[in-house]
Fold this protein.
Amino acid sequence: MPTLHTYDYAIIRIVPRVEREEFINVGVIVSCPSAGHLQAAIEIDIARLQAFAPQLDLAAVQPWLDAIVAICRGEPGAGPIAQLPPRARFHFLTAKRSSVVQTSVTHVGRTANPAGIVEHLLERMVRTPR
């Protein structure tokens, strides 16, 4: 019987007009402490985002999205938050904030394949259904 790992995840969203609370999902963050796994992935459907928010300057938002991925990886150039333990980085990244880049509430799941959960969540929560 395979070992099931509990993981936490949050969906990364772009909220072009914070006061309207409308958003498009553009990525995921997954934390699985028992497997030593912390990962973020971003996939932006540019055409969909431009149709939804033509006034949004994606070039201004992209560095914030890149920072999420870099912090999850613990990259030295990502600042002091990236040097924290993985769980602390996850909690920092998923903290409630009022900005153009936000995350959903944290959800919990179980998997036998922690490395594959990011791809699974991208397919279910970010990519446009086929």
Remarks:
- The radius of gyration is 15 Å.
- The chain has a mean pLDDT of 95.
